[in-house]
Design goal:
Elements: E1 2-4, E2 10-12, E3 26-31, E4 35-40, E5 43-47, H1 109-116
Length: 118
C-alpha cells in the first residue's frame, strides 16, 4: 500500500503475500496524526509510526486512487508506482475486486474488523 504525496514523497507499507483463489479483505487507513495502517482480514498487518510526513490537504487538482497497480491514465499511461525500497511487480492486477469503499474520516481498528467480517 502506498500514499504518494508528490513525486518525491512516497509512504509505503509492505503487507503479506496474499493467497491465490481466496477472498481477502484489505483495508488501508491514512491519518495525519497516526500515519498509515494496513489491515488484512481485519488484523493490523503493517503501519508507519506517527504522522510520518502524511499531509491531508484540500486538493485543487484531481487526486487519484489507484487500485491494483494500474496507472490512473490507463494501461498505456506513463505514470507508475513509486516504490522507494519496496519492490513492486509491474503490470495489471489479475483478479477481482468485490467492493471498494472510501471514507472521509479515519476508521478505527474495530470498524475495520467489522468491515472485514461483513
Amino acid at each position: 500500500a502506498q500514499s504518494m504525496q508528490s513525486t518525491t514523497i512516497v509512504n509505503s507499507l509492505l503487507g503479506p503475500i496474499l493467497p491465490t483463489n481466496t477472498w481477502t479483505h484489505v483495508g488501508m487507513v491514512i491519518s495525519p496524526m497516526n500515519g498509515m495502517r494496513l489491515y488484512v482480514n481485519g488484523q493490523l498487518s503493517a503501519f508507519t509510526s506517527g504522522a510520518g510526513g502524511i499531509n491531508i490537504i484540500a486538493y485543487t487538482n484531481p487526486a487519484y486512487i489507484t487500485l491494483a497497480n494500474e496507472s490512473p491514465l490507463g494501461p498505456s499511461g506513463s505514470a507508475g508506482c513509486k516504490n522507494g525500497s519496496i519492490p513492486i511487480v509491474p503490470g495489471s492486477f489479475m483478479g477481482a475486486l468485490d467492493e471498494f469503499r472510501l471514507y472521509n474520516r479515519e476508521l478505527t481498528s474495530q470498524e475495520i474488523c467489522v468491515l472485514a467480517n461483513l
